[in-house]
Amino acid sequence: MTPSTVTEPSPAPGVLSVLTARDWRLFGLCAAATVAAGVLDVVPAGTVVPFVVAAVALALLASLVGHAVDALGDRLGAGATGVVQSALGNLPELFVCIFALKAGLYDVVRAALVGSVLANVLLVLGLAFVVGGLKHGTQRFGKGRARTISLMLVLAVFAWLIPSLTAALHTPAAGHEWGLSVVTAFLLLGLFGLSLPAAVGRGEAAEADGVPAGSAEASAEAAAQAPAPAGHTVRHDPASTAAADAEHVSQWPLALAIGVLAVAGVGAAFVSEWFVAALEPAMDAVGLSEAFAGLVVVAIAGNAVENVVGIQLAARNQADYALSVILQSPLQIALVLAPVLVLVAPLVGATFTLVLSPLLIVALLLAALVSVLVVNDGESTWFEGATLLVLYVLIAASFWWG
Predict the structure, then answer these.
(1) Which whole-number Å values give the CA distances from 293 to 28, 115, 124, 395, in the listed order?
(2) How far is CA 179 from CA 111, 173, 175, 337, 351, in A?
(3) Residue 91 forms beta bridges with which residues?
(4) Residue 284 CB neighbour total at 10 angstroms
C-alpha cells in the first residue's frame, strides 16, 4: 500500500513581509510630517509654516487611516467597511473641532462642519464627475443606494437646521438653543444607529453597497465573500485583480491593520492640537476670516481620505463606489460628528450649539438639495461636475470676508 502524501501547510507570512514599498513610503512620510509638526509647535518658525506642515501631517494620517480600514474590507464586508471608513476618515476632523472648541474658535467649528458637507457634495463629487467624465464619458451608477444616502443627508440637514431656525425666526424656543441642540443630537445619533443594520449587512444584495447586480464588481465581491472548500485555498486571478491590488492593502494581517489604526488615531490627536494652535497665527498672517478658514481649509484638510479615494474610484470607472464613499462622509458628519460635538463640548469647557448663520444655513441647504438632484438620473458627466465646482467656488468666495 502506497503511503498517502501529507502536504504540510505553508507558514503564514510575517506581519511586516506583506508591506509594499508604497506602504513603507506612506509610513515614512507620516512619521516625518508628524515629527516635523511637533517640532514646529515648540520651535518658532514663523506663522504659516507650522500650519502648513500640520495640515500636511493631518492629511497623511487621514490617508493612513483609510489604508488601514481598507485592509479590513475582506473581514467586515463592503457595507461595514464603507461605514467604518467614513467614520474613521472623519476622525482627524473630530479632533480638530474638539481642540478648536477648547480654544474658543466656535465660528471655525461651525464653518468646518458645513464646509465638510460642501467639500464632499460640491468639490469632491464635482472633481470625481470631471475626472471620470473626461476619462470614460458618461458614467452610470445604481440610483437606489445613492438616492437613499442623499435623501438621508437632506433629512439629517433639515433636522440639524431646526435650532438655527428657532433662533432666526424668534420663536418661543429662542433662548433654549443649547437644550434643543442636545435633543437634536440624541435624535440624530439614534437615527444613525437605526441605519447601521442595513448599512453593514453582509448578506444584502450588491445594490445595497452601490454595486449593480451582475457587474464585475458585484461578482468579485460575491466570490471574495464565498467560503472556500475545506482544505483549499482561494486564489484570485492576477489579471483580474491587478488594478485592485495596486490600490488596496487587503493583504494586511488583522493585527497590523488594527495597530496602524491605533497609532494613526493617536498621531491624529496630537497633530490636530498642533494644527489648531497654528491656525490662529496663520489666519492673522494671511488675513483669513474664521468662517473661510473653517469652511475651506479645515474642511478640506480633515476630509483628505474621501477627497482622494472618491476621485480615484471615479477615475477607475467605479462610479457606484465613488458616490458611496463621497456621500457617506457628509451623511456621517450630519448624523454623527455634529451631534457628538454638541455632547462633548462641555467636557472641554465649551458650549456648542447647532445654531448657524443665515449664509451657512443657505449653503448647507443648497448642498443637501444638490446631492439629490445630481444622483436622481443615475448618471454623471464632466459638465455636471464643472457646475458643482463653480457653485463651490462661489460659496467659498462669499465667506472670504467672514
Answers:
(1) 29, 9, 18, 13
(2) 21, 10, 9, 18, 11
(3) none
(4) 10
* pLDDT score for 232: 40
Instruction: Judge whether 289 and 402 are in contact, CB under 8 Å.
Output: yes
pLDDT mean across residues, the chain: 76
Topology of the domain covering 21-213+250-398: A middle domain of Talin 1 (1.20.1420)
Listed by start position, the domains of the chain span: 21-213+250-398
Give the tens place of pLDDT for each residue, 163-207.
Answer: 888 888 878 877 788 889 999 999 999 988 887 776 665 444 444
The secondary element (H helix, E strand) that includes residue 31 is helix 21-42
Distance CA 330, CA 335 (A): 9
Q: Which of 334, 272, 355, 335 is nearest to 100 (CA)?
A: 272
pLDDT score at 304: 66
Can you say how many angstroms the Cα of residue 287 is from the centroid of all Cα atoms in its chain?
28
Using DSSP bridges, classify how beta strands 379-380 and 139-140 pair: parallel, antiparallel or unpaired. Answer: antiparallel
